[in-house]
Specification:
It is built from no helices and 11 strands. With 120 residues, the chain is mainly beta. It has 2 domains: 41 residues, N-terminal domain of TfIIb; 56 residues, SH3 type barrels (Roll), CATH 2.30.30. Keywords: Hydrolase.
């Protein structure tokens, strides 16, 4: 463990550890980004808005996500089924909350809302 890691902003636990780009508290399970400091919700980081999936995982460009519910697609009789894997996403500032730009096999390029996907 590193002595220069900050304590947990939720419970002030001193045993935080790094897991990828996040810091994790083993005592309460809280996850946060080092850039967010004491922002407990982790919605703003150094580069602006942090985009999270439906379960709260922070998303980044190039991630692979899974669609968690069946989505209707205009002009398609079947839509996108729950469980569809979407690779190599790109985070954008889209229209009406659509903040993921991606290409889905069988459908082509489209934008999705981060609230309907889960990071793999």
């Amino acid at each position: 463990m590193s002595e220069n890691l900050p304590p947990c902003p939720e419970c002030s636990g001193a045993y935080a550890y790094e897991m990828g780009a996040l810091l994790v508290c083993p005592e309460c399970g809280h996850e946060w980004t080092p850039a967010s400091g004491d922002a407990a919700d982790g919605t703003e980081g150094a580069e602006g808005t942090v985009i999270k999936d439906a379960v709260g995982n922070v998303l980044a460009d190039g991630d692979t996500v899974t669609v968690i519910k069946t989505l209707k697609v205009k002009g398609s009789p079947t839509g996108i089924k729950a469980g569809t894997k979407v690779r190599n996403i790109r985070l954008v500032e889209g229209v009406a909350g659509h903040d993921i730009d991606c290409k889905i096999e069988g459908f082509g390029a489209m934008q999705l809302k981060s609230s309907v996907v889960k990071k793999v």
